[in-house]
Amino acid sequence: MNENTDNSNKKIDQLKAAERDDYDQPLSSNEGVKISNDEDSLKAGDRGPTLLEDFLMREKLSHFDRERIPERVVHARGFGAHGIFKLYASQQELSMASFLVDPSLETPVFVRFSEVAGSKGANETNRDVRGFAVKFYTEDGNFDLVGNNIPVFFIQDGIKFPDLIHAVKPEPNNEIPQGQTAHDTFWDFIANNQESAAMMMWIMSDRTLPRSFRFMEGFGVHTFRVVNAQGISRFVKFHWKPVLGIHSFVWDEAQKIGGADPDFHRRDLWENIEAGNFPEYELGLQVLEEKDEFAFDFDILDATKLWPEEIVPVQIIGKMTLNRNVANVFAETEQIALHPGNIVRGIDFTNDPLLQGRLFSYTDTQVARVGTNYQELPINRPVCPVHNNQRDGKSRYTINTGRVAYHNNSLADNTPYTVPGTKGGFVTYPSTVEGQKLRVTAPSFLDHFSQARLFWNSMSPVEKSHIIQAFSFELGKVKSMSVRQQVIDMMGNISTLLATTVADQVGAQAPQVKESQNTQSSPALSMANTVFYPNTLKVGVIIAPGFNGPSTISILNEWIRVGLRIVIISQKQGVVEGTDGVKIKVDDSLLTGSPVVYDGLYIVGGTYEDPYFVTKTQQYAAEQYNHFKPIGASTYGAAIIQNLGILGAPGVIVEGENPSDFASQFIQAMTKQRFWERAQYS
């Protein structure tokens, strides 16, 4: 490295360091005492014992000892980002919540995406439900929409949640497996809690292998109420629709990415926001009038059921844009306390028994995990003023003045004062509640298989094939033949074809039960029906010295123009030179890159290709081909992959005489993204 380059790198490092809020400030203790030596503890002589009176050492070590708050029991592996929400048009007919009434408002939001089952160290591409939780910092207070990327859940009543999580977590005798459902206790729970049937189908689908947080839907899961200024209530379900469409990995791809880059999802979100490719999600509502509460063959309060979009359409009302990465993952993403009980006027709860359990559990969890005054932390604090008589408690941030901290009082004129509902105060919707005290499941909650069958009926042939493979893998990992058979018999209620095919794969008996006769389908449930775009998809471009400079630059510029992200790959890092003096900076070497992390591959090659380059390029191409992704090749590139036998296969495009035609064909292939017909290609 020459001196100029070295100085340039130092300047870059200094600029990055200057982004710290304490850059060029004196070092001090947490009490503000300036520190003269932070390298040596206070000792009795230079080789003597360390003295207990060294308050600086004690402060530094004791703080370090407590730098990790307990991780979440569920949703431990998470990543977040800041953004804004804007309404398309006023929804005042539905709700009096200010952020749903005034389209001129720009409501700040924070989103935390997560996995459910794994610990903080789990791979991000494991098969798992993904959390999709949004905190709206509205002028009326904080509203938290705490949901998942799947619209239904495993259980109907919150009292069973500890049982579900105990079953899905690593088995306590050996702490195996981490962040996976392919084990005995999970499937034993499913087989013996058959309300999980619909969720079982969802988690075995490709929905639990999202390509990116940017390409997955979000659902509030529960039925809430919205209440307008006239006091009229309606039932509602919340939806997030990604503007870029919905896309998932295939199973083999997800496993390999977990090894190549276990941080793949957070890296994808971080890099795209840094590059200005801001993820966008439209907010949709499914709305039911109160008179229609019992109009369906499912209970609208049952969290194991969805409302088919063909019956209750999703009304798109606004858009969320994630436009800023966190400055500190611990202070923001880890300390954020999301809670479905955080609602604002205009939004209220229903009697959904799973939601009712969460309303207690989340408060209890946040107090235990983060602390008594978790709501005072910057990431949790509302943007509107907070005034009440809460005092003291662990880690109190606010310094309250005055001697009065109670209601009613005369010494402070009974302040802070209450606000009538007519002037903006929160008023609970006066829904009628009656009945005997019972521990029972409502009869309307007892149909467990109709919507599981609905999901199966709605899948494309490829999606059904993937579900069969997923069940075969998961149950193949279950050691108990009894549990395997119980699940197969349960599946028989949904589809005889599904159950018998999986049974044959895992050595179980064909089910002796009759499948559900539900023939309904919902096209909205199939990812095969989603619109997909090339924007922000990543193309790995493999280049060797002597590549066709003008042609390559022309093609890459066309791809960049439509939003494709180009990653230059070569045998080694640095700069690679082509014809006409064209030089391109290398982003990944064939060693540091991985074929599974690119959405498409363009093999340019060059006039100088050694055996290592050829072998690694062939490996990249084979991996991309086996995962049904687009492959483009120049004349040099086609020669490299010729002996793989894939030239002429669907989605494998060879550059002709016109670079622009090739560029357009490849863009179309990236838009299609998967060429499933390769499974039958020979």
Describe the structure in your own words.
The structure is a single chain. The chain folds into four domains: 43 residues, Irregular (Cytochrome C Oxidase, Chain J), CATH 4.10.91.20; 299 residues, Catalase core domain (Catalase HpII,  Chain A, domain 1, Beta Barrel), CATH 2.40.180; 82 residues, Catalase, four-helical domain (Hemocyanin, N-terminal domain), CATH 1.20.1370; 148 residues, Rossmann fold (3-Layer(aba) Sandwich). It contains 17 helices and 18 strands. α3 runs antiparallel to α4 and α12 packs antiparallel against α13. The longest helix is centred in the middle third of the chain and has 17 residues. The strands form three sheets. Strands 1, 2, 3, 4, 5, 6, 7, 8, 9 and 10 form a ten-stranded antiparallel beta sheet that branches. Strands 15-12-11-16-17-18 form a six-stranded parallel beta sheet, with helices on both faces. 28% of the residues lie in helices and 16% in strands. By secondary structure, the chain is α/β, with parallel strands linked by helices.
**Gross morphology:** globular
Could you say what the CATH architecture of the largest domain is? Beta Barrel
- Give the CATH topology of the largest domain: Catalase HpII,  Chain A, domain 1
Overall structural class, as computed from helix and strand content, comes to: alpha/beta
**Total of DSSP H or I helical runs spanning 4+ residues:** 17
The CATH homologous superfamily of the largest domain is named Catalase core domain
